[in-house]
Predict the 3D structure of the following.
Amino acid sequence: MTKEIHANIPEGDLKDKWSNYKAHAKLVSPNNRKKLDIIVVGTGLAGASAAASLAEMGYKIKSFCFQDSPRRAHSVAAQGGVNAMKNYQNDGDSVFRMFYDTLKGGDFRSREANTYRLAECSASLIDQAVAQGVPFGREYSGYLRNRSFGGVQVSRTFYSRGQTGQQLLLGSYQALMRQKEEGNVQLFTRHEMLDLVNIDGKAKGIIARNLDTGEIERYGAHAVILATGGFGKIYYLSTLAMGCNASAIWRAHKKGALMANPSWTQVHPTSLPQSGPYQSKLTLMSESLRNDGRIWVPKSKDEQRLPSEIPEGERDYYLERKYPSFGNLAPRDIASRAAKEQIDAGKGVGALKNAAYLDFFHAIKEYGQELIAERYGNLFNMYQKITGINAYKEPMKISPSAHFSMGGLWVDYDLMTSIPGLFAIGEANFSDHGANRLGANSLLQACVDGYYIAPYTLQNYLADQIQVKKTDVNHPAFVEAENKVQQQLNQFINQKGTKTAEEFHRELGKILYDKCGLSRSAEGLKSAISQIQNLRNEYKKNLLVPGDVEDINSELEKAGRVSDYMELSELMCIDALNRNESCGAHFREEFQTEDGEAKRDDKNYAYSAAWEWNGDASSPILNKEPLEFENVKPTQRSY
């Protein structure tokens, strides 16, 4: 039976909703905040900023990460920049334009109120980051420098060379560690959340495993925040770090949190191509390179000449040809599909013919190598270190790769899931990007959720929890959750099969990339569902996990994460099969325009799909949150 979903969007005009919310939200007085415990899982930009901000307010925070330091969170990998509406370039930017660009970039499949709030809060972030010491690029005069990113025609992206995520993370890390030293944050590194604990229908704590000792531990709180990132690593080959996973949000989903639009995974157009079957990760090259680099392939199939030997007339600058208004800065979903189209047509370059050229010859000729090095020097150095090629002398080779999860836990306007007291922020939720994320909006969402939204919306919830006693970790709900976790770990160890979790993951990733990747079809998705079910059954019988439960055991950690992927992957395919339209990163081959572009069906599919766990991965329940567009009219995307 489907649920009635309430997004709890405030009344009033779009531009006034967040102000009205803050003006009327419930508050917790300073002397009461120290009585309330909050668990924050994840120490990336979203988790660290939320934990630091809430601790600064006086709440008692327990912060968890599976890395050995919060600084190793995957936010460091976001290179190109962070968007903010400052209009420093005086090129026509505004909050509404940023809102519209984001909504359009997501193919009109996001909630208007959340998307507008993202744009509205963006300007404050830059001022805060500068105050924290983030070394943004500057003009000679001292003003902050901007560059443009995909899907927009203004310059609103602030950057710190090619390491913006790392610099922003250091800012939030400093704030977090200050609160740790003040005694307001307990930091639990090398701890992985393995289950959520609900008591009387509310989130009250987590079960975590100490990855150094193997001990299973219980932690209680008045509220839980999940800031655990996205699940693009489900494709195996992706731009994400090896440790990135979906386990925290998936196990919360199995405890009652709805999962929204799980099939909407962005494929980034500027990854380094796979060079052999031995690889387990691909390297992301920043989208910022598309500002000055031109993307092309040879016009002839199976071209054997060096790129410098191919004359201009025999090159196809296909993004400039197909999308003249935006050219090489077309949105990521469009740029990735266009690259796949050229590669599938036999025009790919490189040893495996699986890439396109990203060429800086014209930019260097126009601006000089010194300026290009100033803008992108560390990226060029990274490229040469990995490939041995000097990109100042010959073009880079790039290829599409799985990257960002637009889908995630369903949340309302407060960023609270369908479980009271459980919040999801950053890439762990689905709220801001629709069916495709514009570049440089990921760092923005993580920071805005953590610094500016969660501190207000958690208070609105916690105001009714002041008289509630501290959570008793000996409650039967904790005992039951711990027993189930221990039972699963023992089962993994005792199976004694012949295939490792890594081998299963590689097989799963290939199924997903081929049939639920850049393009999908009903036939392919049905085949993928059947293959995933068979693979999951084999996983339950033939998994090999060496070592012991009570020990450092990375293979045991991986076994749990891949087990969750085996269930989530089927939901991704079911979600994609259910949506008989194309929108953003969801490209159904049966639903495309004459020009081969995505063809939406606003009459039947203008909703967010919020899936409910029904005890079986193969029979989820679909709930729908209708998307109402009161301030813009959805149009066919044209770039």
